[in-house]
Design brief:
alpha/beta; globular; 7-stranded parallel beta sheet; 9 helices; 7 strands; Rossmann fold; 48% helix
């Protein structure tokens, strides 16, 4: 039986690479997207089908506990219980702290951190009961080192790994692993749209002198999602080209 994998924020740049890699590895993949992205998700699904990947999509606002519960119920009813959960949904609302409004703080915490609780809570008990599960939380290098103008984002991303370490201890004896991946700068539509000067200045600060390809992030996730990674839990895997070494 194919493992059922859910990727939140699955139609984004990194999410797409994760979905296609897990599908290539034989998983039955469901890509979550925000309800406002229905048209984009339909186009995305067609594009993946043209590449030879049959990936299901599902709309849900993962910042809502109730909507996350509905999503997991629908996936379970249609495909079966979720074996692999990749918490990838995220947004930025960058502002220096003295200019940051509570709405910008709350939006980022709700989507980037509370969503991890909202979605994981729905699949956790089933994983424990079945004695198998893979939870992979996509954090960021900026959750490890902090970033100017990103107090909200850095706090949320650091919080994700705290969640990983605590939950890893609860799942360890039951065959459920929980790990974090902290990517550095990745070549996505968002980073490619940056002003050249800004982009080159970022690349200049990376020892490898380039941004990551989305498939390099996906490869690390594929490893953590595999049966071979069964003895690895509570870890934070940096994929950042040497930008931050800990």
């Amino acid at each position: 039986m194919a493992r059922i994998a859910l990727v939140t924020g699955g139609i984004g740049g990194i999410g797409t690479a994760i979905c296609t890699r897990l599908a290539k590895d034989g998983c039955s993949v469901v890509a979550n997207h925000h309800p406002t992205e229905a048209a984009a998700a339909e186009e995305w699904k067609k594009a993946r089908a043209a590449e030879g990947y049959e990936i299901a999509t599902i709309a849900a606002d993962v910042s809502s506990f109730e909507d996350s519960a509905r999503m997991i119920k629908e996936i379970t009813d249609q495909f079966g219980p979720v074996d692999i959960l990749v918490n990838c949904a995220g947004i930025t609302r960058d502002k220096t702290f003295k200019k940051m409004e509570s709405a910008q703080w709350e939006a980022v915490i709700n989507v980037n951190l509370n969503s991890v609780f909202n979605v994981t809570r729905q699949v956790w008990e089933g994983m424990l009961e079945r004695g198998y599960g893979r939870i992979i939380n996509i954090s960021s290098v900026n959750g490890q080192r902090g970033q100017f103008g990103q107090a909200n984002y850095s706090a949320a991303k650091a919080g994700m790994h705290g969640f990983t370490m605590a939950l890893a201890q609860e799942g360890a004896s039951k065959g459920v692993t929980v790990n974090t991946i902290s990517p550095g700068y990745v070549e996505t539509a968002m980073t490619l749209a940056m002003d050249d000067t800004v982009r080159n200045s970022i690349i200049g600060g990376i020892p490898m002198r380039r941004m990551a390809r989305p498939d390099e992030i996906a490869a690390a996730i594929a490893f953590l999602a595999s049966d071979e990674a069964g003895y690895m839990t509570g870890a934070n895997l940096p994929v950042n080209g040497g930008l931050f070494m800990h």
